[in-house]
Amino acid sequence: MMNTQFEFTSSQLSAYMDKIRKESQCLIDELIVKYSP
């Protein structure tokens, strides 16, 4: 039971981190465009 729960949580965490990474990349790209000479 615990093991399955942990795997489920780990999977969710992985998806969440992936989402954050994509959003961060978009934000960084915007900043580069905004502040590049």
From TrEMBL:
<protein>
    <submittedName>
        <fullName>Uncharacterized protein</fullName>
    </submittedName>
</protein>
